[in-house]
Design brief:
13 helices, two-stranded antiparallel sheet, mainly alpha, 2 strands, globular, 64% helix
């Protein structure tokens, strides 16, 4: 919206600043942060009033979690609202990539909201699960990937870029839709699985958003892309603004989600944030790099897959409890210790992911 002020820069020179993605990204960070800090308390009070008993706690979970009973969930609503406002305010709305990412974010947020609604109303840890939920996620992801492929140049459409190689492209053709779907759906559910401790998921999401904000900016700039010998994807630089909005919203949410949490983001937030990161990765042709930058989410997901598979095949559990963060809680680590150490892992993985831009 504010980007349109550039058209008046000939008359008012200072308006030319809205032309720069870096400036608008900073504006998106501040706007999203301010929105959550201003409206967060009211949203929390409203959700606490409407939900009553709050998010149900797993009976088989760590005993320390029972003290969190009554904490309201659906905090993702404040994240989604702030990201949407900041994106619409600071992005170039003529950019289709912006709308694709926003579509996936809000659609996944809606799916997560329904899941949270069922959990709260039925007071059961399980909500809207199974094939119905997965089917909706796949449908949204497939549409997003199809649009992204249509936006891509013939050189890049349907191709998977490999990190550490200058010009390596794997031509997948129409099969790329399936790969893109796996990335988006996988990212959404991986963040969802990670969201089990106060502040655990939101900080790695912000770290990944900052990393992909830089990647999107470089990928979208033909000069930087040429210098780094990475594939230039015209228009994706604008996604840095959305990444900025995710960072600002995450910072604001962390203010209320820091231990002891006043609110949980719920599936409303975690599914939407993961979906946003997955879509940005597909748009920037950095799907494989997302697995590195978001390696913490991958580890959490693998721990669940390994645990379920092992128990079904052998009747034995590999971990004391899954996802992985609960395993370390059961080993005696304090919740804050698990959270901070996982944050450190997220930072290290993000730095490795950024290194792929130059190591080619």
């Amino acid at each position: 919206m504010l980007y349109e002020l550039v058209s008046f820069s000939d008359q008012i020179g200072i308006l030319n600043v809205f032309r720069y993605i870096t400036f608008r990204t900073g504006g998106a960070i501040f706007t999203a942060l301010l929105f959550v800090l201003l409206f967060g308390p009211g949203i929390i009070d409203l959700l606490r009033l409407k939900q009553g008993k709050g998010q149900p706690i797993r009976e088989d979970g760590p005993k320390s979690h029972f003290s969190k009973k009554g904490t309201p969930t659906m905090g993702g609503l404040m994240i989604l609202a702030s990201v949407t406002v900041a994106t619409l305010l600071w992005s170039d709305l003529a950019n289709v990539y912006v709308w694709v990412v926003l579509l996936v974010t809000l659609a996944y947020g809606g799916i997560g909201f329904y899941d949270d609604y069922l959990k709260v109303t039925k007071q059961q840890p399980s909500g809207f699960g199974g094939w119905a939920r997965l089917g909706l996620e796949i449908a949204v992801a497939a549409l997003a990937v199809y649009i992204i492929m249509d936006l891509s140049t013939e050189e890049l459409s349907g191709k998977l870029a490999l990190p550490f190689f200058k010009t390596a492209l794997v031509d997948l053709g129409a099969f790329f839709i399936i790969v893109g779907m796996i990335v988006i759906v996988g990212a959404g559910n991986a963040v969802n699985l990670t969201d089990g401790l106060d502040g655990l998921a939101i900080v790695p999401v912000m770290i990944a958003a900052a990393t992909f904000g830089l990647i999107a900016y470089l990928i979208g700039n033909v000069k930087f892309a040429s210098y780094l010998q990475i594939h230039h994807v015209a228009g994706t630089g604008e996604l840095a603004v959305i990444c900025g909005a995710l960072i600002g919203a995450g910072l604001g949410f962390l203010w209320f989600n820091a231990p002891p949490a006043m609110i949980f983001m719920g599936d409303t937030g975690s599914l939407a944030l993961g979906g946003a990161l997955g879509t940005i990765a597909v748009a920037t042709k950095h799907e494989v790099v997302l697995a590195i930058v978001g390696g913490l989410f991958v580890l959490e997901t693998l721990s669940v897959i390994i645990q379920v598979t092992s128990y079904k095949l052998t009747g034995k559990r590999v971990f004391r409890m899954a996802p992985l963060h609960h395993h370390y809680e059961q080993k005696g680590w304090h919740e804050s210790t698990v959270v901070v150490r996982f944050w450190i892992i997220a930072v290290i993985l993000a730095l490795i992911g950024l290194a792929t831009l130059k190591l080619r």
